[in-house]
Amino acid sequence: MLPALTEVPSRKHQCSTCNKTYSTNSHLRRHEAIHNQERRLTCPSCHAQFSRRDVARQHVKRCVVGGNEVIFPTMKRGKKRVACDRCAQCKLSCDTHTPCQRCQTNGTKCIYQQSDLGAHPTPYIQGDSFYSLPVVPATDTSSNFERGRISIDFLLNFTNPVLNGPSVAIATDADQRDVAEVEFGDSSRQHDLRDNYSASQTPFWSLEDSFSELFDVSTIGIGEDCAFSQYDFQSELPKKPQLEARVSDIIYQLSATHDSILRHKPDTEAHFDAQLAAVVFTPDNLESCIRAYFHHFHGHLPIIHRPTFDSETTSLPLLIAVFLFGSMSPTQSHVAVPARRFSDVAEAFIFDQAIFEHALGGSHEALDLHDEIETLQAALLLLMVQNNTNNLTTRRRIRLQRIPRLVSAVRALRLFEYKRQGFRKDTTACRWQTFICDEVRIRMAVWMFMIDSTLAVFFNSPPQVVLSEMIGDQPCGEEIFDARTASDFEALAFMEFAEPQAFSLPSFVSLFLSDSVPGPCIPVRMHTTSANMLMAICALQSAAITSRLSLLAPATVEALLRAMDKWKSLWEVIIKEEPNNLRQSGFVRHAEGVWWLTKALVEVGRSGDLSCRYMHPSPSDSAEDLHRFIQTYKDKV
Predict the structure, then answer these.
(1) Which of 368, 372, 369 is nearest to 353 (CA)?
(2) Domains in the chain: how many in total?
(3) Residue 174: Cβ-neighbour burial (10 angstroms; 0-12, 13-18, 19+)
(4) How far is the C-alpha of 122 from the C-alpha of 264, rounded, in Å?
(5) Do the domain assignments include residue 259?
(6) Per residue in 126-172, pLDDT tens?
(7) By the 8 A CB rule, do 527 and 502 touch?
(8) Best exposed site among 7, 96, 180, 370 by fewest CB in 10 Å?
């Protein structure tokens, strides 16, 4: 026999204003909206005001006439956010004060205004409480976003003179790529992220964060003392005892290099901090920084064959370079500050390798020089690492010594003219190994050319590599280069290498410079990719800065502007044919921004405007001059 029912449970959800009780929390919240006089929804037709959203919606359906559609602000489910706009957008913690501590520290305006930063633009929202309901004509389907405008936000961030501006821009760009891939449902890329970068629990960060905010010296520590230990990146990394020997070797070689520098330059810091080095260079830090590098930076400088990269066997210079580059990732903030202390001595160690001395003795065959190729890769990565510093001495050394020395070594190995050797072996594994050997050499040459062009713009100095040297083969597609196994490579590469390459970079660029070939009608269009277009605009960028600094601008300005107009016409055709690649391809995503900067340099040079320090025909070791130039002309060109 069932027990007799007792009294009905009391309604435990009680309004704090009028003491009415409700059986569910949702009922209580709807009731409490009546007492909240600030939350008013206004009918656009009769201007009646309502506290409850459901009542307002029913009223508007009956009241609004004339074929107009009312857009109600999207209500976000779940817990209402309390963070300020900036902290919410950057996915950072906020103390909810006015202003919050983070905004106060960074000197930015602290606003509690928008209820859904990720939504489509909605009516004006004030204090997360006031909503107006706009009337949108039913026939109006135009976007609120300006179409056809070239975004130069990446350029502004990449040239930001704040410490680590370039690396912050690249890392943020990689995070935005991840978000886009999730939105577009790229399951293969999502699998790749889970497989290769399990440490990416905190992908969003702010370009405006100060150095002290991003890399807080107080967080430097070991184990549980680290302020970032709540994100246990290293717990998911396999333990490799073999890395202990590699780490010890790194510390020993850097210490020996420091001693060598001290003998030649007595004013160098006299003490090599071995204790700090032991904190920075650990197997766990090494593994996590390598993963961070491949997640945040590899896509923008894809010169290393990721599937076969092995931290236990790769050359020491390349291992150090990848570690230091990876330490600049937002997920490695606990390593970034102390690792920065070793960047100069690491630079010296890499550029003291034998390949740079041998380069002075003449050209060599690059086919069997595996360790030497890795040293060149390390040197190129270190140039990008050191480009983050504001130290004028370091930047001047990069401009006057390191870039020319690296270009000379690449030239001595004849990489600028390197062509694929062909698949002479029968087995799939051998063909894959031959491909890797060829491709890393081709990519080293091509990216040396493009980074040289980029740094020439940064330093306002002539590039070291000339276009006529670039007669080697072009890189293959990223999907082939990223093939994880020999069988995957075989399946992808069959069509890629079935025919000889259609053109060299000089012949391709000459088509843009020709006054007889319209842009969209360039004869090699069917063989052109967005990556080819990035190389072409870097070549035009080199030509533009060389012309300006050589005082030849008046004679070449029309040809360069005509070439850039053709490039833009062909680019618009290419991106329509391969839109997916632009979401995944690093600097290719911003090739149009490079085009804008190149055109701005040519047009401002033609006008004779010297109001910006950058337009003076002399080198600049500060990135601030270029950054100010972009800021000055971003709305004028």
Answers:
(1) 372
(2) 1
(3) buried
(4) 64
(5) yes
(6) 333 323 333 333 333 333 223 346 778 899 999 988 767 888 888 88
(7) yes
(8) 7
The pTM of the full predicted model, rounded to 2 decimals, is: 0.70
Query: How many CA atoms lie within 13 Å of 222's alpha carbon, on the beta-carbon side?
Result: 9
**Please, what is the Cα angle at 424 between 421 and 428, to 5 degrees?**
110
Q: What are phi and psi of 208, to 5 degrees?
A: -90, -5
* 3-state helix/strand/coil string of 573-634: HHHHHCHHHHCCCHHHHHHHHHHHHHHHHHHHHHHCCCCCHHHCCCCCCCCHHHHHHHHHHC
Helices (H), ranges, 460-529 = 478-481, 486-496, 505-513
Please tell me the distance from the alpha carbon of residue 387 to that of residue 398, in angstroms, as a whole number. Answer: 8
- The answer to whether residue 424 sits within a structural domain is no
Q: How many CA atoms lie within 13 A of 389 on its CB side?
A: 22
Question: 357: Cβ–Cβ under 8 A, 6 or more apart, which residues?
Answer: none
Give the SS3 label for residue 41.
strand
Amino acid letter, residue 187: S
Segment 373-384, tens digit of pLDDT: 999 999 999 999
209 CB burial (10 A radius; 0-12, 13-18, 19+): buried
If you search the block for the tokens 């290419």, which residue do you land on? 574
Instruction: Give the domain range for residue 158.
Output: 152-352
Q: Is residue 293 part of a domain?
A: yes
What is the C-alpha to C-alpha distance for residues 149 and 158, in angstroms, rounded to an integer?
19
> Residue type at 33?
A
CA distance 186 to 487: 22
The CB-side HSE value for 610 (13 A sphere, CA atoms) comes to 5
Measured over the CA atoms of residue 354, residue 356, residue 360 and residue 364, the dihedral's sign is: positive
Burial code (b: 16+ CB inside 10 Å, e: under 16) for 383-414 equals bbbbbbbbeeebbebbbeebbebbbebbbbbb
Q: What angle do CA 33, 36, 39 make, to 5 degrees?
A: 80
- Does residue 300 lie within any of the structural domains? yes
Q: 38, 129 in Cβ contact below 8 A?
A: yes
Phi-psi region of 127 (alpha: psi -120 to 50; beta: other; left: phi over 0): left
Residue 41 dihedral angles phi and psi, to the nearest 5°:
-105, 125
Cα angle at 225 between 220 and 231, to 5 degrees? 85
Closest C-alpha among 505, 617, 516 to residue 563: 516
